[in-house]
Specification:
transcription, Helix-turn-helix domain-containing protein, Rhopdopsin 7-helix transmembrane proteins, 344 residues, Arc Repressor Mutant, subunit A, transmembrane helix, mainly alpha, HTH_AraC
């Protein structure tokens, strides 16, 4: 009895935590498609897990609830792929497209067919439909794996530590694989294994995410205490290196560029880079990066007058229009629109 209660609590906890994490990723700012896809993925798996948990402990559960949970499975594969796809697009500094409409549209079309043939009237079809649903899921995992393989060069930089977002990416992908394997193995194990695997993978993912974040905080603290005044020649050399990597690698086009990443590219400490920017240029990191972005924006505004300002902002590495307009006004003393009008 106690073990049964423990299993129910542990499985239900995974579903509830998944919903809370989904809300967290939906609400993260700045808004990114990758976060939205991850939030939707966690929500779909949570629904499937809740169904599995309640069905295991209450086999007489209403068939409508069973159909709802099984339908959620149709979304897990596409959402895993879309999360990987949009996350990699951010790393490649590509503008996120609307391909999610096609992938999720197919899933919702199949789900709508299920409404025409409900579980209550066609139980035989639904009992055997899981083979097709799992195959659908597996094909999307293969597509996601191919995306990861093609992007291995940018995911694993020999000169840098693995980013926290990359660890999260692989944790989520591996969790999706683990949950599928768990559901496929239920004839040999137990129906509750799928729910337990999700609970386990969610908590492992959160632990990995939080430990990595804590490690970064400790690194920043350590660098803070190691901070010391640079010699003039060393400061000028570092400033030259910063300009070089910014121009040659166009790091400023990355909307997720951080002081840590810029420092890593030059082999320096974050505090050292910040110190040089303040002492030699009298600029903050954000202002330094935004000046490169605004220079690019001015060229695009002049050379491609057909583009609207939202696209200009995206192409220059800004996360939002408001940030772009504020930076443009601060650096040039005029709005993007007035700059375009004065230049035509």
């Amino acid at each position: 009895m106690i073990s049964g209660q423990f299993l129910f609590l542990f499985s239900a906890l995974g579903a509830m935590n998944g919903i809370l994490l989904a809300i967290y990723f939906f609400s993260r700012r700045p808004h990114r498609m990758a976060n939205s896809m991850l939030g939707a993925l966690l929500l779909a798996i949570s629904v499937r897990t809740a169904k599995s948990t309640f069905y295991f402990f209450n086999p007489s559960l209403a068939v409508e609830f069973l159909q709802f949970g099984m339908s959620a499975c149709l979304l897990i594969g596409p959402l895993t792929y879309l999360y990987v796809r949009y996350h990699l697009a951010d790393l490649r500094q590509e503008v996120a497209g609307r391909e999610w409409c096609w992938h999720l549209g197919l899933s919702f079309f199949v789900i709508s067919l299920g409404l025409l043939f409900p579980y209550s009237e066609y139980p035989y079809i639904w009992r055997h439909s899981m083979y097709g649903i799992h195959a659908f899921w597996f094909l999307y995992l293969l597509a996601a794996a191919w995306q990861l393989w093609q992007s291995r060069a940018i995911l694993f930089n020999a000169n840098a530590h693995i980013a926290r977002s990359t660890l999260l990416l692989f944790s989520v992908y591996c969790s999706s694989c683990l949950i599928l394997i768990a559901y496929l193995s239920t004839p040999l194990t137990s129906y509750i294994v799928g729910a337990l695997s999700f609970t386990f993978s969610v908590h492992i993912t959160v632990v990995v995410f939080m430990l990595r974040k804590q490690a970064q905080v400790e690194t920043i603290k350590k660098e803070k205490y190691q901070n010391r005044k640079l010699a003039e020649d060393d400061a000028l050399s570092l400033l030259s290196s910063l300009h070089q990597v910014m121009y040659e690698q166009k790091l400023y086009l990355n909307p997720n560029l951080t002081l840590a990443l810029l420092a890593k590219k030059t082999g320096s400490l974050q505090t050292t880079v910040s110190q040089v920017l303040n002492d030699k240029l009298n600029k903050s990191f954000n202002l330094y990066v935004n000046e490169f972005r605004i220079e690019d924006a001015k060229k695009i505004i002049l050379n491609e007058p057909h583009l609207n300002m939202e696209l200009v902002a995206e192409r220059c590495g800004f996360n939002s229009n408001s940030t772009f307009f504020a930076a443009f006004k601060k650096i040039t003393g005029q709005t993007p629109a007035s700059y375009r009008a004065a230049s035509t």
